[in-house]
Amino acid sequence: MAATFASLSDDLHSPILSASSENMTETISIDDMLEKYCGEFGKWQLKHFILTCLAWALEAFHTMVMIFADREPDWRCVNGAECGGRSVCGMKAAEWEWIGGKVASTVSEWSLICGDKFKVGLVQALFFAGCMIGAGVFGHLSDSFLGRKGSLTVVCALNTIFGCLTAFSPNYWTYVLLRLLTGFSSGGVGLCAFVLATEPVGPSKRGAAGMSTFYFFSGGIVILSGIAYIFQTWRTLYIVTSIPSLMYIMLVLPFISESPRWYLVRGRIHEATKIMSVIASSNGKHLPDGVFLALDEEVSKSKIATNDDKYNLINCIENKDAQIGSIVDVIRYPVTRIRLFLAVAINFLTSMVYYGLSLNVANLETNLYMNVLLNAAVEMPAFIITAMLLDKFGRKPLTIGTMWFSGLFCLMGSLMSYIGVWKVIKMVCGVLGIFGMSGTFNLLYIYTAELFPTVVRNAALGCTIQAARFGGILAPFVVVLGGWLPFGVFAACGIIGGTFPFFLPETLNMPLYDTFNGLEAGLA
Q1: What pLDDT, in 10s, does the model give residues 231-253?
Q2: CA–CA separation, 507 vs 451, rounded Å?
Q3: Cys-Cys link to 167, which of 4, 40, 107, 235 (CB 3.0-4.6 A)?
Q4: In whole angstroms, what is the distance from residue 206 CA to residue 201 CA?
Q5: CA dihedral defined by 416, 422, 423, 428, rounded to 10 degrees?
Q6: Who's near 350: CB < 8 A, 6+ residues apart?
């Protein structure tokens, strides 16, 4: 075993990382190395992808738990009081009681009804506000010194702490604060997991892989529905849904590798090459001698360099400093600035519709657990269909089509009443609206990631996720309006949002650029 590791170490520090043989040296990007030598989606990527994407189920727990913890339970009249068609707002406290007692939800425990009903929307909105802040913070940290894996570890640890503390909230305002903090940490989970899962995947497989990440989020919602049905007191529910984050840190994260792209842009060439060598060997392939890993712009320089120049170029690559970018750099470059503004608008509108329709199940007067389960289940075929069409039609047409599909059914839902069969049709319109917007939400991650270079990818994704969370902040306030307004607002968001992708480029089969210079060279 020792001899094997010694041999591997010799391989990694010999011709691959040296220029002793000028004519045999090949300077190559990560995408090209994956295609030619390592395999685009083999056994290593499959294991890495599944383990990383399990974090999406954890985000589903912390995000969607509010549907059950903040629900308004059923109530009944007591002491011979006549209910009729009366509302609790017009009854004395001694004339009615909550079914399941006050511990069933935050609404029943702190009487968040009637004049205080807005507080339900407030706590949900502040959770998404925390997500918006966290996405920006952890987007930057994962691009800089903390890395993708390090950031994922931190956010899972914070989710465990804040989630468990939420269960012991003594009053409403403490509960609000802890949900804000949980949102802050949750904002980085999906972001870090998505980038970490897809960056080691080859260009032709990246679209399908990126589209598959949301299966884990929907699967998490399905599991959450079962957990909430079993544990029907809100404090217990928060503890049960927070412990899996700790288990993920202990049992899963040790088996996940850092992104080789992050190592590369940080100037840590040896670590990046070592991971690529492991990917190749795990996939039954071999990384030959004389292949040297480099950024896009360095690969371009090597193609026009003479043999005499290559040795100097490789020495510069080996000893180069880390490349660091921020959201300021995204805005500074005209190409990425336009892309960022459009991506922000699309993510904002998509999120408002997606989370709004998810939270609006409370207004449909049907079985809450079955409705949430049904909404989550219908998302999966949306992912399958969009994944199948992604590489055939491209990112841009699918974004337009899915947003308009959702907007159309939301428009139809706004015209239906809550009486008789129309209530069922309204529910179906909501399910189909979620079906369309789930496809949009899913493909937006891969589309947005492909629009920006590695050096600022997480920062740009963090910015768009911040916009999405802002849409989530407004969604609860739209839902509490009731009547036809939620569906009407969501219809407008879907239809208007579907016009913005017309101004974005298609990224199908385009390389995943590492730097701004590489991106500009690719557009030339």
Answers
A1: 989 999 999 999 999 999 999 99
A2: 7
A3: 235
A4: 6
A5: -80
A6: 403, 437, 440, 441, 444, 468, 471, 493, 497
